[in-house]
Design brief:
heterodimer; A: alpha/beta; 5-stranded parallel β-sheet; 22 strands; extended; B: 492 residues; 25 helices
């Protein structure tokens, strides 16, 4: 086929030719006024066994079509000649009936596009009528629908939204420079996939070069230059091709697995979704190609209305050979399992499948034996033809339906979970309390970080001072403070604000590596993590250490990007302390080297980490320290208040109470938030359980809920356990306390205790349970560690001791309702 | 800690506002983190006036002579401090509001900028060069061990030695040895060092897998080489003590390489410990190949001033008040003699000035040099123990825990367990009608205190039985808590 240029993909401008002019008029053998829908080959035998085909045998129908279009074949030669006028020369190999069919299709399309459902070829009509009588789905192998011909195994674009219009959708991309289509050969940049006219380039290219070609803009960007693409001329809408829409997931691609007509006459297909790398769980990886797609194992049934047009998803081999396929060519090598997020090479899967199942596939080809070879061989032309044809279809009215717009059918990719489910789907209106609960979650990122302004300023000044001057001298900063004082959060907030400044161009770009010491399997792995973050290559830590040493100590620059300063944030720095502390030494030694451009920020809880380290390391660490003191109650109050801004759910005193309580013990902001969230939960629960009451105004979280939450958090669980244990256990514990008071000894034997218990029982009119039972109770209390039992077998002389202060026990047993007399003994 | 804060300005710094600073130091001890704005204002006006008195305008007239004088000074090591400091005053005062100047100054003071020559280390450097030169000329292997505290210019001097050798080799036409510089911390395993030596000595040869690199090296140096033009090899091993393994084999083998009959290795080891070779390689002495030891002493005050001055010399303007530099030098020399620290403090002082200028935008004419108070503040940041601040900013219950610990330990005990501590803690709480927290919460608080280095917790399976010892001085706690009446009563 078009073998004029041994090249890369060409954008074929002639494709964009207006529908009428270059297309030869098809002879009127197809007398039908309008054929927007029509099946060409009859259903396969073996699709789902439940729906046995009602249609006539497939082989004959195909040949019949061929016969019908005999005239057409002759004309086709003319067609190709006419095309030669254009920039790219096509040569067409023997014509297959399908092609002529599409030709006809296009013809009719050009003539009239209005009423596609009614206008059908009469013979088809009859067949369909026959089908509708049976009220069954009729399966087809190939369907011509709305000007396109779709067969099983084809790849198509599918509209994602109903309002996706295709009117403004160009079949061919505009040149990035002149913003015009047509006129001359276009070349595609392998990096940004932008199209350029050969003559719009500077300097202009005469022919499409061999191998990869990257446009000047991408090259400039790689060199770190600030490149501006040419602006579109005023008033001209920048249009996106279907390819671009797909790659930005505004369109979907699907592989048609089966086609059928519903009983109501609408045409449906079952499709296998393709996903772009961004939609997989792994996200786009550096090794992903620009045009790479993944085939999924997710299927969905959709109306044919949603189909936009063909696209071509090829295996890598085909892709490498494909040259002039136009813009809608994609590469797919792997299948993506949507449930397990795993990838498998398609070639392997297909090998497996060939053996056991999928007779349908074979049938597809065996059905039209004599044509199959031809079809295979001129696959390319066919696609090309298709492309031309779609180009001609520029004036098609937008289809109203979008994929999955029907009720009762699965929601395509949304089902996979890779698409965000819109907020309004779960549009249950949140109450104030629920909002408060959500915003108090630790995972919620607060809008602002109050109370750490000074520290954040200091961090900002530190980083800016380091990266802003041209020299970019290496530095270290050590941040310490107790947990929950916002250390990491402040640093990250600073980094975020710096990023926005980078975007605005105030600060030079830098690379930022964040490492949590806890997440490293071994301290040495940090080299690997750093190296991977900086370069994207994964090497062993030893190699990474050598390479990093080259980079930072010796100033070896491997690529142009390397030159930017690097900010290394190490959380939980103290976990990197090895026996000989070489990891910390290396990391802290790099900033002291000239040209390292490395800034290290270490975070840890311990105040005196530098003093604990070897003197040579603390000497390199420098003197920059930053302390995050525990929050006091005012600050905690402000933090909670800031999160709850605009949500009227808490009484003011309640917040103050919670923050005072936390500030007195630990000053941990996480804790304060947790207490408030728990209090909100309790209040929410209370409101919801008292549904009988009419809603009386707002329900605020009051002191009582906060108190309860604090009790839950601060009070040790043993009180709860003691409060809720059995009656006999309570008597047992009371006897322990009584014994303790009586003797003053913390230890007692089981024998003595049993006597006390029997004494208590008889005095208060309760039958003594017997020794065995008592012993068992003692064992159980021992297991729950309320008592400390002497290890070994349980026997009469076993020593017992309370594990908790006697005050706690008496406090827990004081208000027991079933045994009010217990208080006497304590 | 007041003692430390006073010590900063203490010594014999000729500061007329010593008293004032002392009272300031009390201010600094506030629980609030020190801000320059808080402690500086009383001093600011004063020292500004002082500066005007100190530097008469006449000095600025003869900049030229000043510079030449300074150059002369440089050659002489033992100049009195007074004279050293005079040199700095002869330049125009810098303008820190100008961004370019600040970054130039900062660069000059940065650790990574290697000065053109190592001032105050001429003798040591000469010895090393002499040693290398001799070995090269005689084609005799040898070893040298350089020891000294961190930040005393060991690695820097050796770097300079490399340059000297290159110059010398060029001048005399003798063959420059292969130089291999290794930082032992960056080796993934200790014996990798032989790998590197072998690679360097035989860059073209493929490393055969049969014998270890060490064996090959030994073989290489055991026989007389056929080709006579083999170069000597200078191996510089920084942080040598990272090669110490349990059986000390690697270190031993490394030094033994130099004793082989046809060895070409000149080994220079660098580490902190004075007696590393004696301690770990007593055998070497008996083999009569004990390495020559060059020890780098900590910098003295004069030397620190010299070095700082040398770094600042290239700048055409004066940045520091001489007194400020002297204060820094004295303090650092007294504490550790660590040059890195001195540079860091100077940088901190510049940043202090920067922030001050940023805050007081209107007063542009007054000050621009880094003054003593800036330096004192930077010093206090570097050396001041943060314990008092930390204790004062602790949450109340943690303070109560500390209080009860102190009370408990007054009776002569040295340690306790968490379970016992709980009792004391509850007692203290009861005496003030504060509801105590549970024992689990208490052990949690103890862990936090342990993290901050105030308490030390022992290991135990049971939380209640963990040993608790105090890591800091009792007096610090008492001092920090005396501001609160409750604790004062409690601790009396």
């Amino acid at each position: 086929m078009a073998d004029t240029t041994p090249t890369k993909r060409l954008r074929q401008t002639p494709l964009k030719s207006p529908p009428n002019t270059p297309i030869p008029l098809t002879p009127q053998t197809l007398a039908s006024p309008r054929r927007s829908l029509r099946f060409i080959s009859s259903p396969a035998h073996s699709i789902p066994p439940a729906n046995t085909p009602v249609n006539p045998k497939p082989t004959r129908s195909k040949s019949a079509v061929t016969l019908n279009n005999n005239n057409n074949k002759k004309l086709y030669g003319n067609d190709s000649i006419k095309d030669d006028d254009d920039d790219v020369i096509y040569t067409f190999s023997p014509i297959s009936p399908d092609r002529t069919e599409t030709k006809k299709k296009r013809k009719s399309k050009a003539e009239n596009t209005v009423d596609r459902v009614n206008a059908r070829v009469s013979e088809t009509k009859i067949k369909i009528k026959a089908n509708t009588k049976t009220k069954r789905r009729v399966y087809y192998k190939k369907v011509s629908y709305d000007g396109g011909e779709f067969s099983i195994g084809d790849d198509v674009y599918v509209k994602r939204r109903e309002d996706d219009s295709i009117e403004d959708e160009p079949e061919i991309e505009e040149c990035r420079v002149c913003f015009k289509v047509g006129r001359g050969v276009m070349i595609e940049c392998d990096d940004c996939l932008g199209g350029f006219h050969l003559r719009c380039l500077k300097p202009p290219l005469r022919a499409v070069p061999d191998g990869d070609w990257i446009c000047g803009y991408c090259e400039g960007r790689k060199l770190g230059k600030d490149v501006k693409l040419p602006e579109a001329p005023e008033g001209k809408k920048v249009r996106r091709t279907a390819k671009e829409k797909l790659l930005s997931s505004d369109l979907w691609a699907v592989r048609i697995e089966s086609l059928w007509k519903e009983t109501d006459g609408s045409f449906w297909f079952r499709g296998r979704w393709y996903v772009i790398p961004e939609e997989t769980a792994a996200g786009r990886q550096p090794h992903n190609l620009k045009r790479e797609l993944y085939r999924t194992n997710d299927f969905a049934d959709n109306e044919m209305e949603t189909v936009l047009r063909h696209c071509y998803v090829m295996s890598p081999n085909e892709y490498a050979k494909a040259e002039n396929e136009g813009d809608d060519v994609f590469l797919c090598e792997y299948e993506y399992d949507v449930n397990w997020h795993s990838f498998k090479r398609i070639a392997e899967i297909d090998n497996d499948e060939d053996e056991d199942e999928d007779a349908t596939h074979d049938d597809d080809w065996s059905g039209d034996e004599e044509d199959s070879d031809a079809e295979l061989s001129d696959d390319m032309e066919y696609e090309e033809e298709e492309d031309r044809y779609t180009a001609a279809r520029g004036s098609t009215p937008a289809r109203e339906a979008a994929a999955n717009s029907r009720k009762g059918f699965t929601f395509g990719l949304q089902k996979i979970g890779t698409k965000r489910i819109p907020e309004h789907v779960r549009s249950h209106k949140q109450t104030e309390l629920e909002k408060a609960k959500a915003t108090l979650l630790l995972a919620t990122l607060p809008k602002s970080l109050p109370c750490r302004n000074k520290e954040m300023e200091e961090i900002t000044a530190f980083i800016k001072g380091a990266i802003c001057d041209d020299q970019c001298l290496g530095r270290c900063l050590y941040i310490h403070g107790v947990p929950g004082t916002g250390k990491t959060m402040s640093v990250l907030a600073v980094m975020r604000s710096l990023w926005s400044e980078v975007d605005a161009g105030i600060v030079k770009p830098y690379s930022f590596v964040e490492i949590n010491g806890l997440k490293l399997a071994a301290p040495e792995n940090i080299y690997r993590v750093i190296y991977e973050a900086l370069t994207g290559h994964r090497v062993s830590w030893k190699k990474a250490l050598n390479l990093l040493n080259d980079k930072f100590s010796n100033g070896a620059i491997s690529s142009k990007d390397d030159d930017r300063p690097c900010i290394l944030l190490i959380d939980e720095l103290d976990l990197l302390v090895t026996r000989n502390q070489s990891v910390l030494y290396n990391i802290l030694d790099w900033p002291t080297k000239p040209n390292s451009k490395l800034i290290v920020i270490g975070i840890a809880n311990t105040m005196d980490l530098p003093e604990k380290l070897l003197p040579r390391i603390s000497s390199r660490m420098g003197i920059q320290r930053l302390c995050f003191a525990p929050y006091n109650y005012l600050q905690l109050q402000e933090i909670i208040g800031c999160r709850l801004k605009g949500i009227d759910a808490f009484e003011k005193q309640a917040i103050e109470f919670a923050s005072r309580k936390v500030a007195a013990v630990s000053g941990d902001a996480r804790r304060a938030l947790e207490i408030c969230r728990r209090a909100a939960e309790l209040a929410d629960y209370r409101v919801k359980s008292s549904t009988s009451l009419p809603k009386t105004g707002k329900s605020l979280v009051g002191m009582s809920e906060v108190e309860a939450a604090i009790q839950e958090m601060f009070q040790a669980p043993h009180i709860q356990v003691m409060k809720s244990c059995s009656k006999l256990s309570k008597i047992f514990l009371a006897a322990m306390v009584h014994e303790l008071y009586k003797t003053g000894m913390s230890e007692t034997t089981f024998e003595k205790l049993a006597q006390t218990v029997s004494c208590l029982c008889t005095n208060n009119g309760i039958t003594f349970p017997g020794w065995d039972t008592l012993l068992r109770i003692g064992c159980k209390l021992g297991e729950s560690r309320i008592l400390l039992c002497e290890s070994g077998a349980s026997h009469r002389l076993q020593k017992l001791q309370l594990n908790f202060p006697s005050d706690d026990v008496s406090f827990a047993l004081k208000d027991s309702k079933e045994l009010p007399w217990l208080t006497k003994y304590m | 800690m007041p003692s430390i804060a006073v010590a900063i300005v203490g010594g014999d710094a000729p500061s007329p506002h010593k008293r004032r600073l002392r009272s300031n130091s009390a201010l600094i001890d506030n629980p609030v983190i020190n801000t320059p704005s808080k402690s500086c204002p009383p001093v600011k006006s004063k020292s500004a006036r002082q500066r005007v008195n100190d530097s008469p305008s006449t000095n600025r007239a003869n900049v030229e002579t000043g510079v030449t004088k300074m150059n002369n000074n440089n050659n002489n090591n033992n100049l009195p401090v007074k004279k050293l400091l005079d040199g700095l005053l002869d330049k125009p005062i810098w303008n820190p509001t100008e961004l370019g100047q600040i970054s130039v100054v900062k660069e000059a003071l940065h650790v990574s900028t290697a000065p053109s020559m190592a001032v105050c280390r001429e003798d040591e450097q000469k010895r090393i060069v002499e040693f290398c030169r001799q070995s090269i000329v005689e084609e005799k292997a040898g070893s040298l061990y350089i020891c000294g505290c961190p930040g005393t210019g060991k690695s820097l001097s050796v770097e300079n030695v490399k340059g000297c050798l290159a110059v010398w080799a060029k001048e005399t036409g003798s063959q420059l040895p292969d130089i291999l510089t290794i930082n032992c911390t960056s080796l993934s395993s200790t014996s990798e060092i032989f790998n590197k030596i072998l690679e360097k000595s035989q860059p073209n040869k493929k490393v055969s897998g049969r014998s270890t690199p060490l064996k090959q090296l030994q073989q290489l140096y055991f026989q007389k080489q056929q080709s006579s033009d083999t170069k000597m090899m200078l191996v510089i091993a920084d942080e040598l003590d990272y090669l110490i393994t349990k059986d000390r084999v690697v270190l031993h083998d490394l030094f033994m390489l130099t004793t082989l009959p046809f060895s070409k290795v000149i080994l220079i080891g660098i580490a902190n410990a004075i007696d590393l070779t004696d301690r770990f390689l007593p055998k070497l002495q008996s083999l009569n190949c004990k390495p020559t030891v060059v020890s780098f002493r900590s910098y003295s005050m004069d030397q620190i001033i010299m070095i700082l001055k040398q770094r600042l010399m290239a700048l055409p303007y004066a940045v520091f008040q001489p007194q400020a530099l002297e204060l820094c030098a004295r303090k650092v020399a007294a504490a550790s003699g660590d040059m890195r620290k001195a540079l860091g403090i100077c940088r901190g002082a510049i940043e202090m000035l920067e922030t001050e200028l940023r805050e007081a935008t209107c007063t542009s004419t007054l000050t621009s040099m880094v003054r003593v108070d800036h330096m004192a503040f930077a010093l206090s940041r570097a050396y001041k123990s943060p314990i008092v601040d930390t204790i004062q900013s602790l949450p109340q219950h943690q303070q109560i825990v500390l209080c009860s610990v102190v009370k408990h330990f007054r009776k002569g005990k040295k340690d306790t367990t968490i379970g016992e501590l709980n009792k004391f803690y509850i007692d203290v709480c009861k005496s003030t009608l504060i509801p105590p927290v549970g024992v689990m919460e208490l052990s949690c608080m103890c862990r936090v205190l342990g993290d901050q280095g105030i308490l030390k917790l022992g290991q135990s399976r049971d939380d209640k039985l963990r040993r608790v010892t105090l890591q800091i001085d009792e007096a610090d706690i008492i001092f920090a808590l005396q501001g609160i009446r409750f604790f004062r009563n409690c601790l009396q």
